[in-house]
Amino acid sequence: MKILVCMKQVPQKDAPLKLNESGTWIREDVSYEVNEPDAFALEEALRQKEKHSGEVVVITAGPARAQQVLREALAKGADRAIHLEDNACVGLDASNTARAFAAAIKDETFDLIFTGLQSDDYGYAQTGVVLAELLGWPHATIIMQIEKTEGGIRVKRELEAGYFQFVDMPLPAVLTIQSGINKLRYATLIGIKQAKNKPLRKVTLAEVQSAIGANMQKIERLYIPQKTKNTEFLEGPPAEVAKKLVEKLRNEVRIL
Amino acid sequence: MADSILVIVEQREGKLNRVSWETLTAGQALAAETGWILEAAVAGSGVANLANEVAGKKIAKVYAIESAKLEPYTPDAFAAALKQFIGSKRPRLVVMPHTYQVRDFVPKLATAMERTAISDCIGYKKDGDKLLFTRQMFQGKLAADVSFACDAPWFVTFQNGAFRGDKVEAGVAAAPVETVNVEIADGIIRNKPQEVFKEAKQAVDLTQAEIIVSVGRGIKEQKNIDLVRQLAEALGGELAASRPICDSGWLPMDRQIGSSGQTVAPKLYLALGISGAIQHIVGMKGARTIIAINKDSEAPIFEIADFAVVGNLFDIVPPLIEEVKKAKAGA
Amino acid sequence: MLVFRKPIPDIERPQMPADVVIVGGGPAGMACALRLSQLIDQHNASNPNSQLSKENIYVLEKAREIGQHCLSGALLDPRSMRELLPGFEKEAPLDAEVMKEAVYFLTEKGKFKFPITPPPLRDHGNYVISLNRFVKWLGSKVEETGITIFTGFAGSELLLDGDRVTGVRTDDKGVDKQNQPKSNFEPGYDLQAKVVILAEGTRGSLTKQLIARFGLDRDRNPQTYGQGIKELWEVPSGRIAPGEVIYTMGWPLTTKEYGGAWIYGGKDNVVSLGFVVGLDYPDPRVDPQRVLQEFKKHPLVARLLDGGKMIRYGAKSLPYGGWWSIPPVAGNGWMILGDSAGFLNSQRLKGIHLAIKSGMLAAETAFEALKKDDFSAASLSDFQRRVESSWIKDELWKVRNFHQGFEHGFWRGLINAGLQQFTGGRGLRDRYPSTAGYQHLKKLTELPADGGDEASLLGPAKGDGKLTFDKLTDLYHSGTKHEEDQPAHLVIHDTDVCNTRCIKEFGSPCQNFCPANVYEMVDDATQPNGKRISLNPSNCVHCKTCDIADPYQIITWVPPEGGGGPNYDGM
Q1: List of chain B residues whose C-beta atoms are within 8 Å of the C-beta of residue A180
Q2: What is the ipTM of this complex?
């Protein structure tokens, strides 16, 4: 099984974010970490490799600092890494990121491509599905489980409200992986050491420029959401307060 | 052709997903704001009756997009069918709810039409002639106003709860319904989905809960949690807790809300006996309505509560459970 | 039920051979690695036939990222950096050069400015830095030279063979709250090293093991400590200039407590301010975080911070003991650097430059040992000789009795300090003794119930949410995070002492001296005093105060699972 895992580096979850001068993006002087959903995608890929042998390749599009994500993936057991390195990658929308990936891997033959569920910064949940369409591959999203079958794979898809569904799919395919389905493995000292000698191919944006176009959407403004809170205190003896609360629940919150 | 907004509602196994009413509300609001014509569509096999249901609302026209191959749902079939339909109708704006199913096919559909989707929006604004769609970014820490930088059709999906399904306007008379048969060639559909089934989830996903009843140190003892559980059940909500409760093992860790637990933004967050330390607040301040009950009038939780009760939760929760049950029984 | 972290017994551990293992990626550890790398490069350039390899030289850093656990004021004396990297000022992240100092003695509302800045506190020529950023930069230079820094790995145990240190065991990962392996369990590695260099910072846990094992504190003064507690603020521009340095003494402390504050103007309108409290105060109810909040209420500080925003919080202990507390720094397979050894000038309040210099000297020793392939005690004792003939000794010798002089109160301390100035550090006698801080703690029965003069320092701060903060709110701004499902790493050897004795005798001071709300006495009807000790280990900011200050000395801090801890971005 040759599996590609698309990974992203995002600002650390608790990092205090500051807006840039123009109010269109954040200031980049924060700490970064791997997008957690992608870590679960990587974990699943590594498990598939352990079960069926093969190769796991990781790819990311981002500035030089994003290399850290690839290094960590290699330390955990990925075999090769591809770094689409350019500061401008941060500003590419999901469509363009997918286009850039497709161009970067055009000479490779993968059986499966995994992405995380969505990114913790943008939260669009699109890159994997766009990539599938560009490649002309079948896809499935929010996948909990993958099994190899005669004709390809059988995946378990999560639906809302506690529903699930098995889907049979041919290969090659793109899957977006649900978070939390496995415990993430730790990188070991040996893994970290060995990672230094694993191939890391750099791809410049110029090399894939012909595949991408202008962004089709634009962040006009990024801002801290304002909330005006007028706290209404409900008073009286408990029985009365209970009634007042229910009245609020019925008329204002609308859940009764 | 006049500018139009197309709302695509969602159905599964012959029933409309009720989030569809929210999407219609969104469509109605956008239509009123822009002056564009509002139309809706439902895709599937044998969905005429669902189209009729939608036609009861204030809307210009409803389409039933029909093909046997649309049942069961597959992204290949839906993308192909809708591409055909939208390609011929060419609405300016296509609006859908941000459900798991929509996430599964909209990026494919948009890409196939060489367009893009702005997904998971919580609202919209008009800036002169431009439509801006508001989204949460960085897990709700920041908000972004996003515009389209390409030609129509523009695809937008709205977050669950961004609009009020109960506020959708009824129509004066039933809107016309048109059945559109779409051709889906052989070989288009590559996935073979099996039956949908329900399974008891291993871990509770509080991020999906609409109503959360949360308990903190004020509950004093483990056995008192049962009282709160009754309230959660009466309201049809999920039980959650602040860190110390989970640390003591009184509730499992997957019920923890806060910086070291889950971050939630439900419709209603009821905080009982929770002081509101910042570590907890960051996990729930995105809730649409926050109600707090605490003995301490200076508890920081009151600063972010919409409705506040300074009092003893043990005195208030029992009558509250009764009143909730009465209200639900239709009193 | 509290279960404490312990290396899982009787399991097979992966073995990894190493030439040099440096435990700790702070200024001392990084300087050591960098200097060693320079020496090896130089050697290899002129010795094509006997190349030395850097392949098996490792730095172990418990934080997820380099510099993440580094906290200090800080003011850098550039002396040792200029030796390590001449011209470093051009590329290192320095906030500002110090251009203005003032020292104040504070009363509750007033201040008295020292007409002349006492020489030890004169900082012209020094730089205001963020130690976190500085170490990040230094670490990147180490990585560039090809030395592997393992981040997210802690040194959890020393490996010993007789009287020889043979290596370091790293932390077990994926262990649950009951100390049982989880499905993603990874056993700690046994790094078999020719020399282990301990650069763990203040009150190093392996250093503590080493000192206990070989009785290295025999004939030494017990090490004494302070706790530095810091907030980083963004203030409206113009309030304080970059490079402006302010020290204060006096209020809110009384003559019974040792300590004082610093305020440093950084760049971009960021102010570093903090309080250092000697961990030898008599009243166990003293809460250093409260002291910092009280300090901010002084008009001098309140005016500075008005309209500003607190952006980060942290705390760390610091070793005050000086020259007489420093143990032997080299032995059979080991060396100790920086704060772990106690290389800190408590009079100047500076230790970073000494840490860096000690790292360089250790590197020189390690280099010679690598060349000869001789890591015996005799060979490594070269480090001891280098330190004693370097300016580290010159500097620390002059202040060898400084902190001890304060053991009997503030004024006596000042007099002693004055005397020491004129006698090359001697003062009244060559070596002042010292007592470990916790031994100064008085029992509650010996203290006024209302706290007397110290009342405003005792117990938790309430905070107004704008200028002052309660501990939990402050703690949130330390960015501290740990894997939740792991055993408690604050090892209390006998919790009965907490529940039956300490609570009565000292009122459970752990709740006060811990700057992170790790320790809590919670209601428990089954206990004789109605309360029992409870821990919130994932709040820990790795300051080591509990290991130092608990009156019964029954707490041993061990590293939690690597990667966890505070996030001292910008500190």
Answers
A1: 203
A2: 0.92
B48 secondary structure, DSSP code: H
| Pick from A212, A208, A200: nearest CA to A59 | A200
Mean pLDDT over residues B131-145, rounded?
89
The residues, ordered by sequence, that sit 6+ positions from A36 with a Cβ below 8 Å of its Cβ are: A13, A116, A120, A179
In contact, C115 and C284? CB cutoff 8 Å = no
Q: How many CB pairs under 8 A join B and C?
A: 21
Give the residue numbers spanning the domain of B125.
4-181
* Whole-number Cα distances in Å, C417 to A60, C227, C246: 59, 21, 20
Give dist(CA B161, CA C556) in Å, integer. 50
Instruction: Please spell the DSSP secondary structure of B241-304, one letter per residue.
Output: E-HHHHHTTSS-GGGBBSTTSB----SEEEEES----HHHHTTTTT-SEEEEEES-TT-GGGGS
Check pLDDT > 70 for residue B1. Answer: no
User: Which of B274, B315, B327, B288 is CA-nearest to residue B161?
Assistant: B288
The answer on B263 and B122 residing in a single domain is no
At residue C247, the 3 state secondary structure works out as strand
Contacts of C424 (CB under 8 A, 6+ apart): C397, C398
User: Between residues 83 and 112 of chain A, which touch chain B (CB distance below 8 Å)?
Assistant: 93-95, 98
Alpha-carbon separation of residue C182 from C1, C174, C486 (angstroms): 19, 5, 10
B46: domain CATH number? 3.40.50.620
Mutate to test the interface with C, among B221, B222, B247 (most CBs of C within 10 A): B247
Backbone φ, ψ for residue C547 (5° rounding)? -60, -30
- Does the residue B152 lie in any domain? yes
> H-type helices in B95-204, by residue range?
100-112
- Number of other CB atoms surrounding residue B36 within 10 Å: 19
CATH superfamily of C15-73+135-216+327-398: FAD/NAD(P)-binding domain (3.50.50.60)
Chains that touch A (3 or more CB pairs under 8 A): B, C
| Cis preceding-peptide flag for C74 (omega within 30 of 0) | yes
Q: Using the structure block, give the residue that is written with the tokens 């740990």.
A: C482
Look up the pTM and report it: 0.92
* Structural domain count of chain A: 1
pLDDT digit string (tens) for A143-182? 999 999 999 999 999 988 778 999 999 999 999 999 888 9
- Which of C150, C183, C569 is opposite residue A189, by nearest beta carbon? C150
Q: Does any domain span residue A238?
A: no
Q: Please state, rounded to an integer, the average pLDDT across all residues of chain B.
A: 92
Q: Does A17 touch chain C (CB under 8 A)?
A: no
Neighbours of C450 (CB within 10 A): 8
Q: Kindly state whether residue A71 falls inside one of the protein's structural domains.
A: yes
Handedness of CA C198, C199, C202, C205 (dihedral sign): negative
In a domain, B79, yes or no: yes
Residue B331 has pLDDT above 60, yes or no: no
Taking chain A, what is the end-to-end CA distance rounded to the nearest angstrom? 52
Q: Are strands B37-44 and B61-66 parallel, antiparallel or unpaired?
A: parallel
